[in-house]
Amino acid sequence: MSANTPALEGGTPVRTGEPVPFFRAALTDADVAAVVDTLRSGWLTLGPRTAQFEAECAAFVEAPHAVATSSCTAALFLALRALGIGEGDEVIVPSLTFPATVNTIRHVGAEPVLADVELASFGLDPGEVPPLVTPRTRAIVCVDYAGQPCRLTELREIARSNDLYLIEDAAHAFGAALEGRPVGSWAHATAFSFYATKCITTGEGGLLTCNDEELAQRARLLGFHGMQRDSWKRYSDRGSWAYEVECAGYKFNMNDVQAALGLSQLKRAHALRESRTRVAEAYSHAFRQMRALRVPERRPNTRHAWHLYVVQLQLEQLRVGRDRFTRALREEGVVPSVHFIPYHRQPAGRELTLRRALAHTEAFADRCISLPLFPQMPERDVEDVIEAVAKLLRHYSR
Ligand SMILES: Cc1ncc(COP(=O)(O)O)c(C=O)c1O
Q: Which domain holds residue 371?
């Protein structure tokens, strides 16, 4: 048996012992201390730290308004509801996304119209949008896939000329920028995620940013029982017991324990992104020579948040498909993932009628593999991932 024989075919794995994880959280003593301080303060729920986190995030992404939420899913839902999208409306959205992007459109009672992505960034293809616009279309939801801003200039123009809202799912893209302007104020509403694996984390959490004060007010109200957010103060010694319910709202606020972690992480947001960028660059440098692999393309004038590093297998040059390749990687001691199984291939998605073929999405979905990528990823882990991929490509190439 040669050294090139994959562990899956009976060979010796590149890595023995602990596998390279797909992700490991980069928490510091300062993060832990910030959370402990908040626990000791006795104020655990929505309060001053959440308000401070909103203000600092708004400054960071250069957006006038920010509303902290329990998740990005909640932020997406609130954006749709606050913009008045609901029953009888259509919303154009890529199928290549996390289910929440599409589910939330269905939750408000609107119909998701699934669209294809473009090949350079795997964000929504602006050319695919106009043929899908009907008199019922109210909004476009685009996704900054893997942390790279999608074609926001073109999408904004299409939204403007068709009188549509543009909502940006920037779950992957906190800290990303296009033409020097951060993601956060390009669209009518932008939703970020602070889930554990994201660019910065609050454990679970999200943020809605926008330029319009009225929209921010509506989102705040809807996300907190239809009550003015300051009603949290009624439990403080400065507050009043009186409160008013202005509409039948939801419970989607962030709490101060999450916000304390977020504030601490925010101080390192640039450093965390630079750390991810170094890993992505090391991968691209190594993989660019490998003919059976396609590395992620960089769009010009963008700052990539590198939430994910996604390669595509050139299946014509390989003797195995993506699913066997990912199993083989796992056996080499590297934990990969897949982003995403497109929505239209899910049982829930089969209930939707496709109005146009999704050729790029279909091809990508059969070829994509997300490799481990996290801040402070040890060099040894990066080398093992590169060696494992190279070994499998040598063995499985035609
Ligand atoms: C593109 C995209 N949108 C939305 C979400 C939902 O984020 P959250 O878990 O914060 O609700 C995710 C989560 O991974 C995502 O990848």
A: 269-396
- Do 204 and 231 contact (CB within 8 A), yes or no? no
376 lies in some domain: yes
State how far the Cα of 248 lies from the Cα of 226, in Å rounded to an integer: 6
Centre of ligand 1 to C-alpha 243, Å, is 33
Which ligand 1 atom is nearest residue 143's CA?
A: 1
Domain boundary, last residue among 219, 240, 266: 266
Model's pTM, two decimal places? 0.97
Separation of CA 158 and ligand 1 centre (Å): 25
Instruction: Write down which residue in 266, 294, 320 finishes a domain.
Output: 266
Regarding whether 152 and 250 lie in a shared domain, the answer is yes
Answer yes or no: do 221 and 313 share one domain.
Answer: no
Quick check: is 251 catalytic? no
Let me know if residue 21 belongs to a domain. Answer: no
Q: Out of 39-48, 55-64, 157-166, 167-176, which region has the weakest mean confidence (pLDDT)?
A: 39-48
pLDDT in tens, 348-371: 999 999 999 999 999 999 999 999
Q: Which atom of ligand 1 is nearest to the CA of 198?
A: 14
Say if 196 falls within a structural domain. Answer: yes
The total domain count for the chain is: 2
Who lines ligand 1 at CB under 6 A? 71-73, 97-98, 100-101, 143, 169, 171-172, 193, 195, 206
* pLDDT at 213 > cutoff 70: yes
Instruction: Give per-residue burial for 19-42: e unless 16+ CB within 10 Å, then b.
Output: bbebbbebeeeebeebbeebeeee
Mutate to test the pocket of ligand 1, among 76, 77, 98, 145 (most ligand atoms within 8 A of CB): 98
Q: How far is the CA of 72 from the centre of ligand 1 (A)?
A: 6
- Per residue in 45-57, pLDDT tens? 999 999 999 999 9
The strand pairing partners of 141, in sequence order, are 167
Structure tokens at 150: 């999608």
Q: Is there a single domain that holds both residue 320 and residue 240?
A: no
How far, rounded to the nearest angstrom, does the alpha carbon of residue 186 sit from its chain's CA centroid?
Answer: 16
